[in-house]
Amino acid sequence: MTFREFSLERVSALVDRLAAEIERTAESRNDPKAVHDLRVSIRRLAQALRALGVTFSKKDRKVVRERLREMMDLAAEARSRDVALELFEAAEVAPGALPCARLRRERGKYRRKLVELARKWRRDAIAGSFREALGLPEAKTEREAS
Predict the structure, then answer these.
(1) pLDDT-based confidence at residue 140 (cuts at 50, 70, 90)
(2) Is residue 118 in a domain?
(3) Domain range enclosing 100
(4) What's the rounded mean pLDDT across residues 49-77?
């Protein structure tokens, strides 16, 4: 397998994973694990584009990374509040305490925006757009994969 073939295969798998996490996020309303997993899939794809960058044009990588940053920023805001609430809970801070209530409101706001963007990306078939921009093969259907 050549380096190019390896790069295309690896990045294609990461785009597939991102598409699955976008779908999961679009369908979830209150799942901290979905937000975390989405962030992980975005980071892995962004890192692969950096590490395997010679395979893809600089312009195409930049376009994909900029789009990823939009989703990552919202996911980071929601996840930060999830972590803060977990810390408050571990410290046995009353759930009704003002800081907890404020964090829950903010988390809800960012999650709503995140779910809205995930649904938009799903409608727009963003994974297909990424595949096209990077010159990746089309995703295999479940039937083709088996």
Answers:
(1) low
(2) yes
(3) 3-141
(4) 92
